[in-house]
Amino acid sequence: MQKKQKLQAPTGMHDILPEDQPYFEKVYTTAKELATFYGFSRIDTPLVEDAKVYEKGTGIATDIVEKQMFLLRTKGGDVLALRPEFTPGIARAYLQHGMINLPQPVKLYTSGPVFRYEHPQAGRYRQFHQFDLEVLGDESPAIDAQIIQIFYSLLKELKLPHLTIEVNSIGDSSCRPYYKKLLVNFLRARQYSLCQDCRRRIKTNPLRVLDCKEEKCQRVKLQAPQVIDHLCEECKTHFTSLLELLDEADLPYHLDPYLVRGLDYYTKTVFEIVAERATSQDAGKPPALAGGGRFDNLVKVLGNKDVPCSGAAAGIERIVGFMKELGLNPQVALTPKVFLAQLGESAKKKSIKLLEELREANIPVAESLGRDSLRAQLARADKLGVAFALILGQREVLDNTIVVRRMDNGVQETVKIDKVVEEIKKRLRK
Known about the structure:
By secondary structure, this protein is an alpha+beta fold. Helices cover 38% and strands 20% of the residues.
């Protein structure tokens, strides 16, 4: 007899359980408040895009496009991709909806799930969540600095310790070709010291070799020529200004000359923010909690419009993982102060309206409308640690009254039901 197989979430996908929701809510709420303060407006793009958006935007030779995209073909023959990241879709929306004609820059934020067919491991999923900021239509290094500041502030407000900003400049179309030629010559001479993927990348995307996590590739990387030594004057000036802005803001940064990030659209500024782990079991550089940079060529690649842009994203699962490691309580949910207990159908009906009145008065309240036993309901109230229980039975419904019970000493008092909200507010203030 064949053993019955249990249904589970797809490989690399995960459920966000009720006990984890406060962590996610805390991150999203803090991020939204920061984005709004700095003048960003919300945009939501589809979960799927034409695959060409990522082939052109993210880059045909990137791991995301080559290996990690979830593709689907429609009945009409269109090839769509589940979004592996936000930036190309937002750039597409910027062009499609004429945002280029708005006063520039256009500052947008979004959040939600993204999908990559990766090897699942701790902190890495095939469906995960990001918070994303994009600024379109501004070439100033001050915009790069502001984006870095926002993500640093986000992680700091979430109380993650020992934050460091890793930053670099990878140049632009003026100076990067010469650097790439130097890098290719260097790598070819050492190709047999590289992993198989990196040998292939020498031809397709040599900068990605610098991003490889294989130990032997890391050793080669440390001898490679540095891109900041070969910047043109414009890129050099831009990067110098950015570092001055970070200094002025007292942001703790470290210049990483080998930081490139693995997406083709980056120009000039690239950065990552890392935090020291709570445990020492993971050796080496900790994973980035946020990262991004400037992408001055992306809009042009997608729509023939020359628009300077900058942006970044934070991985929510990684942030939540760190918060849990550190024992950081998100404290999002309001602790109930009052418990509403009811007995009988008439009392249930009255309770629905009363609960809404308590909510409108900003009084945190709990209930168990599905339970009929007063004893069970009061036991739950005691477990929740509420100050007062409101007891509504058949007699109270007929009399338009309600019983107010102090949970610490059991003292009860009957009050008019239309006065109970004000009465509770008064008692909670004492």
